[in-house]
Amino acid sequence: MAEVRYVAIGDSFTEGVGDELPDGTPRGWADLVAQGWADSLGQPIEYANLAIRGRLAWPIVDEQLEAALALRPTHLSFNGGGNDMLRPRTPISRIADAFSQVLRRCDEEGVRLILLSGADPTEGLPLGALVRRRGDQLSAAVDARLRDRDDVVRALNWPDRELARSPYWSQDRLHMNARGHHRVAARVLTALDLEPDPGWWSLPEEDSGVRLRGAAYYRTHVGPWVRRRLTRTSSGDDRLPKFAEWQTIRPSRGMPVAGEGLA
Fold first, then answer.
1. For the domain that residue 177 is a member of, what is the CATH number?
2. Does 184 map to a domain?
């Protein structure tokens, strides 16, 4: 059995939405971390990813955490709350409680927790100031829960002002593109005391075409989100995890770059 068994849980951020391969499959930072981890060690690791887009923080915990721990991982990464922050009535303390629950269960099972904060998308979002304020509050609340826990691996993306810039984000302004996901992967690997490809911190800017503005943006991206809220549906309804069981990730000759999949 591989010495490193890494499982990721979360929402679209961890599923990899915004960083799609040519066949439309989302890749994202967690896949990149798995490959980078194997490359840095020079030996295979086991990797699973149970994240599903659209999930709120507590449904991530309720639906994914125990299934992830049942795989008997050595490391588990968790991020949540991005979708909750778009719902102003959700108490910040309730979201932070989800982080505490994940930490408690990892402690009980002897699993090392890798904790991420999501990147800040608010530069281009409607009501961005409100979302940024809630993101700041959540970051402070989670940090308070982790005081004196130096054993938790922290990869904090919310304070990264470079990552908040539009060239790191996809057309919907809510999900990072491949450039953003590579930067997050570099941060996670660095937090694990591993060496990422230096280029991952800022890949060349993508030619993503004309960015939609005004009514076209609202019609294409905001409207569907509002309709899901009104009908109480989610973009992740009926979706299954992309890697519900262990995938063996072997070292590659070189670190993967944008447009390439796992080795």
1. 3.40.50.1110
2. yes
Other Cβ atoms within 10 Å of 10 Cβ, number: 26
Model confidence, pTM:
0.87
What's the domain count of the chain? 1
How many other CB atoms are found less than 10 A from the CB of residue 22?
Answer: 8
99 within domain boundaries: yes
CA 159/CA 59 separation, integer angstroms = 25
> Considering only 158-167, 169-178, 203-212, which range has the smallest mean pLDDT?
203-212
- The answer to whether residue 86 is domain-embedded is yes
Length of the chain: 263
Relative to beta strand 5-9, strand 153-156 is unpaired
Tell me the pLDDT tens digit for each residue of 214-233: 566 555 555 555 565 556 66
Does residue 102 lie within any of the structural domains? yes
Please give the residue range of the domain that contains residue 38.
5-203+211-249
Cβ count within 10 A of residue 259: 11
For residues 239 and 236, give the distance between their C-alpha atoms in angstroms, rounded to a whole number.
5
Report pLDDT digits (tens) over 65-102.
Answer: 999 999 999 999 999 998 898 788 899 999 999 999 99
Which residues fall within 8 angstroms of residue 183, CB to CB, at 6 or more apart? Answer: 160, 162, 163, 168, 200, 201, 202, 203
